[in-house]
């Protein structure tokens, strides 16, 4: 029932804002000074970019892909969606993906972000996993909200933990380059057929592995994520039905509905901060490398240069101006999710995991509660243009200089954590030990109190199988999640930079850092349109044009063009 | 009104010295009114906080925010907070760090303040300036972290005490107080051959109880409310002091300690109610400790008055 | 009498009224102490002074060592302000200093040309002035108010109540303010029910500076009275009595006895406050940044934080921090000088 239990693939189970950042904020990626290797990233999947010679050379860095043969999803991935398992989990028929313990029991440390309060180092859950994987892990669970500071300080010290989980949104400033400097090339352990020693890692799609190339070498073990958009505008279906509202299908309709639905007196507001959805409606790319693409006119542009960028901000601002956004969302205080479940706001956006999370949490307290995802509409009510998100944004890395034994034990842990759905290993990682951490009621595993306090986001951070949704207790939610992603995925476009792990040169590291705050300020009426326009032209003159040249060169070498 | 009358009556205290003219009615009312207003400014919000922390979730949801008028009382928030294990453990950590840290800080600060309190002593001006300069220059997070780490202090409770053990401001206050102790007392002791340590212990400190109480309080409160060092130097979340746990619970977009979060998620608890309970919990040690400290203030005053 | 005067907690300078008695009982031993100027001029050889003051110097040693270790040594890290520092370029952050390129004063000139820096500097100064005018006098006034209460129990209770808000962390204070003064808060809701909509104090950028000052007063003014109360507690009642005998009324006594007793403390705190003028608060501003926008809420400390820690631009952040520290030292020296001119001792003697 904890958020991470059933969908580890949808990012860290922690705070929704953080997992948002994974895609919307900073991006990531490799190849510090190793331009030729970048060519490797020219994915062949989109068809629009052919692999180059160097691409083939770099493909040698990647582990061989060996598709899993265990439980097949009943809703296969389509349009970049995650896969879905909507049947009941048959606990008696769980399969085995790790037949032999791969760990040797040599101790090693893992530092990982953690949202919540970590269990004891020798708790039953950690012990059970160590026993099953043959590992001996000392966990350094760090508060996920201040993880960036901690990571920055630890990387600058000379004692780096053996294995470190690095979320893409923490790769700000010079940390991106630090990853190359401080973590080892896993090629000797994983490249080509070597990965077959770790079958669950071998079943991770190559797209995701490609994102693990930092500085010309395979360093990161990826947590794969679906390319289809994962930011859902949720609405309260029960309240919509009660009031007889129909779901808005255009920006204008949304605004007039919102005005109608807002009643300050009753303390009911139409929505929270809809900025992320606004970017999707108007077809604005996300920030970082994914924000760059070559348009149909052949010009390479960044997101803030899109005319849609200002249109999206303008619309978000209209919502604030109209007073239909909850004042606490305007002040960015408290948790919008709780205002949503309390009925104080009727629409809010969050990542796909909230669909299950809110359904499960409200089931008892408010049986009428129904959450649904709104289909994203285009600027004039037609089809939207949605951009694909990167196939992996969280990695675990192993420190340079770690001994062979340490590396093999760390990989054993990652392999265990990447066990596919329907296996004993997956069950152990997600739910712990039956009887201790969960009990089975009507064929559905339900966590005990001990399970809730011990089985949290530690092991799930190390690696994951190809993205999927599965909620044995609410199989219908998994179906809706997959179907929504597939419907939205139909409108999905890939940017020229999709699937590449790109590290911008250090000198541009802070070029675009002011825009996130500027967006927050502008939509709330605390900055003028001219301020945004001025920031855009400053961006161009103080390095944006040079960065464009850099990207152009990079994409040229890469043979990209769409 | 009756509250005001009562206050006015209590203000007309027997302790008033004979030479002091009885207060005028207008002045008294104004003074009393002002005092009541100030206290209400604190007690009003505090009332709302307490009521909300004691309100059941449906009430908080219905009101849609803080509860002013109690509609049903429940202790479920407190029970959840204190039974979780983590909050209770964190309280122990905080109390321990506060006691040990205050003792250490007071020892070194009193020594330094006394060492600098003689106007003509060698090098005191230089040392004083060197201390004060640290008030205005910060070293930055990364260098400080690297130092603490290379000293092997990370993941120890010492990292919560040593880097912030010295408050130059507090030393200045102590020093100013020591300098005000009339020099004839210390000088005559010195002529009798008493060492500086002896003078400090037998003459200066007994005369300085008030300021010692105040500065101890400052240090203690500093340790009690500190959270930053812990968030940087501790990797073991289970060593975290209370403030860190509480901030985790309240901070925007943060998941609470898991058990609690679970309760919030499943709709048993209101996040706002929990947060307000946290506020109250952070206040309890202070509410308990402050009468003791205040008594010491009084003792300090009496020392001066009686001997004078 | 002399002892009473002596145990004044402010301690620096007796109120005018007791100047004479203190001077009168000055002993021969005290007279023997070198006049300050003469002492520095070196009439007593430093060797002898060293032997004499050995114990005193030893006593300051623990603090000096702690400051050296935790304040001065890491301070050396500020050389990165003259670099384009990359903490990850070498095996650890310290050796990385030797591997990062030196860029001279480039970071400083970048700072001077950065409108965001100037905006933060302007906000900082405005807030400093506001705090000086609206915050600083409040604890003094409260202390006088509390001190004028004769009944000990009432005084103790009032005092205890006023402390309380100091113990809320800023996260909690901001949450409570949002719930009371926010657009969906208690006040807005009450007004809404009476037909006045649209009240929202928490997202009004133009009122933000007053809002944060009010928050600071609410949180810390009660706590600030402690030092003043301690100073007041040591004023001898004899002084009041003598003044009363001379026919001084309530207000005149406050003017001629109470305030002079507080003057040294006020001067000390004022000098320190001015020296710290560029630190107007941190967490409070960081937490409310999004509500009113960076234009209104960014101050130097949050700017350094955002640049250094959030964006990882350590060199630039160090440069801004250095400038801030240098200005602080200048300000404290100036303020101290000014205090001397007014006849106060300030933080250190002339």
Automatic annotation (TrEMBL), chain A:
InterPro entries named in the record: Bact_solute-bd_prot1, SBP, TAT_signal
Gene3D superfamilies given in the database record: Periplasmic binding protein-like II (3.40.190.10)
CC terms in the record's Gene Ontology section: cell envelope
Protein name listed in UniProt: Tat pathway signal sequence domain protein
Entry keyword annotation includes Mitochondrion: no
Cellular localization per UniProt: Cell envelope
Pfam assignment, any one: SBP_bac_8
Predominant place of localization: other
Family that this chain belongs to: Belongs to the bacterial solute-binding protein 1 family.
Keyword Cytoplasm in annotation: no
Keyword entries, A-Z: Signal, Transport
From TrEMBL, chain B:
Residue intervals of the ABC transmembrane type-1 domain: 91-287
Primary residence: membrane
InterPro entries associated with the record: MetI-like, MetI-like_sf
Localization, UniProt: Cell membrane
Keywords from the UniProt entry: Cell membrane, Membrane, Transmembrane, Transmembrane helix, Transport
GO cellular component, one term: plasma membrane
One Pfam assignment: BPD_transp_1
Bilayer topology annotation: Multi-pass membrane protein
Top-level lineage group: Bacteria
One of the protein's GO biological processes: transmembrane transport
Segments traversing the membrane: 32-52, 90-114, 126-148, 160-178, 199-221, 272-293
Family of the protein in this entry: Belongs to the binding-protein-dependent transport system permease family.
Protein name in the entry: ABC transporter permease
Lineage: Bacteria, Bacillati, Actinomycetota, Actinomycetes, Kitasatosporales
From TrEMBL, chain C:
UniProt-listed Pfam families: BPD_transp_1
Annotated PANTHER family: BLL4140 PROTEIN
PROSITE patterns: ABC_TM1
Membrane-crossing residue ranges in chain numbering: 55-73, 125-146, 167-188, 221-240, 314-335
Cellular compartment(s): Cell membrane
A Gene Ontology molecular function term of the record: ATP binding
GO BP: any one term: transmembrane transport
Keywords: ATP-binding, Cell membrane, Membrane, Nucleotide-binding, Transmembrane, Transmembrane helix, Transport
Biased composition range(s): Low complexity: 14-29
Family named by the database record: Belongs to the binding-protein-dependent transport system permease family.
All copies of domain ABC transmembrane type-1, residue ranges: 121-335
Protein name, UniProt field: Polysaccharide ABC transporter ATP-binding protein
Domain of life: Bacteria
GO CC entries: plasma membrane
Disordered as annotated region, ranges: 1-33
Membrane topology: Multi-pass membrane protein
Keyword set includes Cell membrane: yes
